Amino acid sequence: MRHIREVLRLHHALALSGRQIGQSLGLHHSTVTDLVARAQRAQVPWPLPPTWDDARLEQALYPGNQGRPRRRPEPDWPSIHADLRRYRGMTLELAWVEYRQAHPDGLGYSQFCVPDQRWRRHLHVTLRQHYAPGEVAFFDDAGATIPIVDGDTGRGMPAQVFVAVLGYSQAVYAEVQLDPSVASWIAGPVHAFAAWGGVPARLVPDNLKAGVTQPHPYEPGLQARDQECAEYYGTVVVPARVRKPQDKAQVEQGVQRVERWILAVRRKRRFFRVADAQAAVADLVRVLNARPFQKKEGSRATLLAEEQPALKPLPPHPFEVGTWRWATVHPDDHVEVDRRYDRVPHRLVGERVEVRVSATAVEIFHQHVRVASHGRLARKGAASTTPGHRPPHHRRYPDGSPARFERWAARIGTQTLALIQAVFAHQKHPEQAYRSAFGILRLAKQRGEAALEAAAAPAVAADLWTYRAVAALAQQAVTPPPPAVTPPHDNVRGAPYYP
Questions:
Q1: Which pTM does this prediction carry?
Q2: Model pLDDT for residues 385-396, shown as the tens digit of each residue
Q3: DSSP track, 202-229
Q4: Phi–psi pair at 288, nearest 5 degrees
């Protein structure tokens, strides 16, 4: 059809003869004459309208070819390929046998295979993806591992290699991970963001249990920690479909490059620590990103420099994996987390709150609003205190000072004062001492100051400084012992019996 269009152009635009056109295009002059005559009979306009494609031009010049029935019936290719996918043991030869049974004069086997191959090419059309800077990043684990040798036993422990690839620049990040846990899976993207200097708008991880709870093709369920990490960085996680590597073709190629240019290069080196293996991998990743492209200018490092302005900025602190739990606020405005005590606003006393615990921080949430945040305490029994969280009538007392309780006890008596001092000396947590001292001093109103003073002396002597022990002694001091009166009966002789 390209020759036909050129014949018409040379005939109308340059007014060349049939022989001249034939010599120019390598055609016989009779063929040129026939084409010009067909165009005149069909009244083909020149120049050809933009809507005239090759099929329209062929229909105008050769109307006899339209609607010509095929000499042999065409196989039902959609039905045949559906059977090939659906039934185990179904072959193309069996499909041809069934076709010939229905059409004895149909195509032979070799002629049957040629259109089948043509049909298959239409089924497997590859979509070339183009990504904008900062649009997407892909994550996956390399199939090959790096053995970390135990120095005591000499046995090698396989370490996984996490691979991340940016869609636009194809910049590669690789990390050695010995522990294939959820924390390690989240640490990989966090470290990749730091290496790239920003966060892409969309993350496409592999469909692993570490990140996906329900591998649904349309609405996959994400692990809570993955969702929390994505919200922290202001991005979104869209996992690849199960058994659909084309959804993350970039990282599949990145994994192949890591296995060829990093893991294979270090195949003969023995590593005794994960840090040493990571350092060796990081060196080769820089070399891989700096290697020039074969079919275009620049390298992954230069494209990464172009892509970095389009990435979202990193938050001030990297994301830390944390665990969530419920807790009830104690009357002293604290919540207990792993035998450590963190203060919350006093208005939440008695309320149930959510506590997020990470390696370095403790965050308390009430109705999805963060109400307190403290650094993770290293020592059990320690307490973190924020003065602004205390009620106004408590703020005049310094934290950790027993002066208020000692003054209160001194008004009752010296034994009570000694008991309160012993309470503060024995309790490790100051807030626990406050509660114990407060309960003991309240016994003066319940049992009387004399009973508390009487109970304090034996409590100090016996080293009993808990509220329950002192309350029991105060109860004994208040309640007099019952009189020893024996009821009269026949077996009692009485005083007159004795002279």
A1: 0.54
A2: 665 555 554 544
A3: EEE----TTTEEE--SSSPEEPHHHHHH
A4: -65, -45
